[in-house]
Write a structure and sequence with these properties.
Blueprint lengths: L8 H32 L4 H28 L8 H18 L8 H33 L4 H32 L4 H24 L6 H4 L2 H5 L10 H9 L2 H32 L3 H28 L1 H25 L2 H37 L4 H29 L11 H26 L4 H11 L5
Helix pairs in contact: 1-5, 1-6, 1-10, 1-14, 2-4, 2-14, 3-4, 3-6, 4-14, 5-6, 5-11, 5-13, 10-11, 10-13, 10-14, 10-15, 11-12, 11-13, 12-13, 12-15, 13-14, 13-16, 14-15
Amino acid sequence: MNEKTYLKWYNKLGYSVGDFAACCVSAIVANMILVYMTDYVGLNAGIIGTLILIAKSLDGVTDVIFGGIINRTKTKMGKARPWQLFAYIGCAVCLVALFSVPQGLGEGGKYVYFFIVYLMINSIFYTASYIAYCTLTSLITKNANERVQVNSMRSIMGNISTLIFNSVTLGLVTYFGGDLAAWRTAALIYAAIGLVLNAIAVFSVKELPESELCDLEQKEDGLQEENKLSFWSSLKLLITDKYFLGSMGLLLLVYIICTMHITGGVYYSLYIIGDYGFYTTINLCNSMPTIIGLCIAPMLVGKLGMYKFNIAGFLVGIVGRIIISIGSASVNLSLLTVGMVVSSLGICTVTATIVPMIATAAEITYLKRGVRLDGLYYSGSSIGVKVGSGLGSALCGMLLNVGGYVANAPEQTAGTISMMKVLFAHGPLVIAIAMFLILLMMNVEKIYAQEREKQGLKA
């Protein structure tokens, strides 16, 4: 199928750095906040985990609200780009504030401060910016292969940035003094980098005009347009769409896996292996194979299609997760390394295709209902990323507390050690199997082709 192309290489590259900007906030918040709050500020892991869980429960509400707002936004810059640009400023400010907990506050005041700032960065500013960024995938091109390409490129950027941040953050904190002020300095550096890269992403692309986004054949048939559909009617369409729910579920679970594995990896390295250097190995084994997989994903998707690509890849990923669990139980570093490489190669299939899957689901709704709900559909992407990473952090805090974790203790109890293994290895395996079952029901390409054929539209 020869589809019209919309993007030059520099558009794709510029757009993709937006994920690097997003990770300047999301990576450090998801993977480092628990360590910062427990081992540096001195707060209880279980309480922090509970506060994260409460905050993330509210995220789903604001995700849908901002998705609806973006749907109805009309400016010279388009629907999504203004939100991505200006909301990120709030992200940067809140990032610095989050890692600047005032020591003059009492213990209760510190919990309140953390909760308010954490809620603001996640439920308001990051929500608005990231939903807008994800929505752009549908608004800058209608070419399915280009969507896979830009999503693979942005995912590569995201993995590179996550690898960098996870590998250097604690070293950077140590370099600046290893105290609370050092965390604030690191957050300032990440916020500044993020602001520049986010602006590059915004101005590297332009949104297509409405006439280009909508099929002329359907517009002539007089089907509904989005501004004729109430927010609640739009929301009803959304929550009854199994493909939207499936996509959101996949994103939710993959980010729970990543956050549990990476955050659990910090504690596994420190308290089980006794060498923080292994945490760098964890990040390399997770990120480098993923980056390689994402580079070849567009070619494989072109040959196999998204559905077969995901099923085959995830079977490989589950095998890798099994190897990790075996290696974790026996503290076999060789098995752990092999398992992480295999798992990352397999599970990156969803990372490469999830946004195109959401875009295709949105197109199916447009074909069936005659209404574009791109912003609301991509609110599911934001829910998955933020709530998934938040739930992963919350689970880490809660389970460590259940296991009896004591911050900075020279030795942890057997129960705590077992819980660290659950976070790092066994829990992610169970979640990966659940994701595979969801993937079996997500052949959106087939449904999209069938709907176009029903309406007599060109392939």
